[in-house]
């Protein structure tokens, strides 16, 4: 009898190592090399974010390779941000766990800090939404993409906050990254569609006789119950634990089609629809929008007619509104208000359109319509992520064009990416609706609504890239 009880444990055989498993093990075994790499990135980041802020503005004919300010601008906005977005969609949050200077500094500070437990206020689920919106809008007001002082304020300010939180909370943990980082929510959403993740096999965990090794999970993931890639920073520290955790391949987006009711998070849906899609589109679009120009002109005439000259003053400080008279680039109070208004209006119109159609799609399915629409909202992660990549890479293209590079294929590439994102999102919706066991008629009723929501994500990009 005893023999039979013991047998399942003693005959347990760990699955053979795959290439991905070996990559995961590499991350775990070479932690010291990763830490060295993180410090190299930290030093480069601190130099590029701070030095240009104290240099004169680059000349009009300056070149990326000859001017540190332009070089830093290209590194941050032309390479770093667009390709971090892309990398997370393809590899999960490797950026966060292996390269992010802010995460590394926060974790380092936390080793020597006060070690307080993470307070309740910090665990509020709305922080990723609020922090993303605030940073995005503020970045536009101070022209973070164009000026080094603004970049130091926004990126450097975030880094100082990350270090301060590290000094206060956790012991060698990343409380900042887990709860307050302005892009944590967006990165978490994008990681959900990555084709690789650290997979936890709970049965193997339970049955394994392998000696456990201590795990230091800096973003404080509850590893045993981890089902998705959203919170995992892909640091590899838990790879091979009890033979149950392996870096594994999966169908891109399968995490979204398999979300349980408990895993659906209304704040994530709001962030995706009104933030990552609505607000981001407004922020990327306002400077090229003829509607913005027309509305600004109309409001300016209205103000002039009433002699409210103060609204047209350019006396706001540079840390509140863009103020670089030497570059003939100064915002009036009206400009500031119009930018906030345009971004807010875009977020509400685009987000509201998508939200409304998702609710309609959810109502066509069996069960709780609100829960259905929440589940369907996650299907827009691919098109939302590709939109943000396209918006950021537009800066890359602009900077490279100024260097004399020509991209005759750019319009086609953008169109192909938008089409890929839309089809991917629609395919996920087919999978999600399929999981509800919907009858064909309900399928047929809900899919057009999902199509309208997806269309609402694409149209603003078509306006920006092809019509304006
Ligand atoms: S669960 Fe934690 S320890 Fe494991 S890879 Fe992800 S971040 Fe690292």
What order do the helices and strands come in, and which of them pair?
Layout: H1 2-10, H2 19-29, H3 31-50, H4 68-91, H5 94-99, H6 101-112, H7 127-141, H8 148-168, H9 175-180, H10 184-191, E1 196-200, H11 202-207, E2 245-249, H12 254-257, H13 266-285, H14 290-305, E3 323-324, E4 329-330, H15 333-363, H16 369-377, H17 381-402, H18 410-435, H19 440-467
The protein binds iron/sulfur cluster.
Describe this structure as you would to a colleague.
The protein is an all-alpha fold and 468 residues long. It is built from 19 helices and four strands. It has helices at 2-10, 19-29, 31-50, 68-91, 94-99, 101-112, 127-141, 148-168, 175-180, 184-191, 202-207, 254-257, 266-285, 290-305, 333-363, 369-377, 381-402, 410-435, 440-467, and strands spanning 196-200, 245-249, 323-324, 329-330. The strands form two sheets. A two-stranded antiparallel sheet has the order 1-2. It has a two-stranded antiparallel ribbon with strand order 3-4. The chain binds iron/sulfur cluster. Iron/sulfur cluster is lined by residues 97, 198, 215, 217, 219, 221, 223, 226, 232-238.
């Amino acid at each position: 009898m005893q023999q039979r009880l013991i047998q399942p444990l003693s005959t347990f055989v760990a699955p053979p190592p795959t290439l991905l498993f070996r990559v995961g093990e590499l991350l775990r075994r070479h932690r010291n090399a990763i830490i060295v790499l993180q410090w190299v990135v930290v030093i480069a980041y601190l130099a590029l974010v701070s030095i240009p802020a104290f240099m004169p503005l680059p000349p009009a004919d300056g070149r990326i390779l000859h001017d540190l300010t332009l070089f830093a601008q290209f590194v941050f906005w032309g390479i770093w941000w667009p390709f971090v977005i892309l990398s997370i969609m393809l590899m999960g949050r490797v950026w966060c766990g292996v390269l992010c200077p802010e995460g590394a500094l926060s974790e380092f500070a936390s080793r020597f800090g006060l070690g307080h437990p993470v307070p309740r206020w910090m665990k509020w689920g709305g922080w990723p939404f609020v922090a993303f919106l605030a940073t995005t809008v503020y970045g536009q007001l101070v022209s973070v993409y164009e000026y080094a002082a603004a970049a130091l304020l926004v990126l450097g300010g975030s880094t100082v906050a990350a270090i301060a939180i590290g000094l206060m909370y956790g012991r060698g943990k990343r409380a900042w990254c887990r709860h307050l980082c302005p892009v944590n929510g967006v990165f978490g959403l994008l990681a959900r569609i990555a084709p690789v993740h650290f997979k936890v096999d709970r049965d193997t965990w339970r049955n394994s006789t392998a000696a456990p090794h201590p795990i230091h999970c800096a973003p404080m993931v509850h590893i045993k119950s981890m089902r998705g890639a959203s919170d995992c920073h892909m640091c590899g520290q838990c790879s091979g634990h009890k033979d149950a955790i392996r870096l594994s391949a999966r169908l891109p987006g399968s995490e979204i089609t398999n979300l349980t009711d408990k895993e659906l998070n209304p704040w994530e849906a709001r962030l995706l629809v009104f933030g990552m899609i609505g607000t981001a589109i407004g922020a990327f679009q306002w400077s090229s929008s003829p509607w913005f120009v027309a509305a600004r002109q109309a409001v300016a005439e209205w103000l002039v007619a009433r002699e409210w000259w103060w609204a047209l003053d350019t006396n706001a400080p540079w840390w509140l509104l863009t103020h670089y008279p030497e570059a003939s680039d100064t915002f009036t109070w009206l400009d500031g208000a119009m930018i906030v208004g345009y971004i807010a209006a875009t977020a509400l119109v685009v987000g509201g359109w998508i939200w409304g159609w998702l609710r309609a799609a959810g109502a066509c399915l069996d069960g709780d319509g609100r829960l259905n629409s929440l589940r369907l909202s996650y299907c827009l992660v691919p098109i939302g992520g590709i939109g943000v990549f396209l918006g950021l890479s537009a800066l890359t293209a602009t900077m490279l064009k100024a260097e004399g590079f020509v991209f005759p294929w750019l319009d086609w590439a953008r169109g192909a990416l938008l089409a890929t994102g839309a089809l991917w999102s629609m395919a996920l919706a087919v999978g999600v609706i399929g999981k509800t066991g919907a009858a064909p008629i309900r399928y047929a009723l809900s899919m057009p609504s999902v199509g309208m929501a997806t269309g609402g994500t694409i149209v603003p990009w078509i306006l920006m890239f092809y019509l304006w």
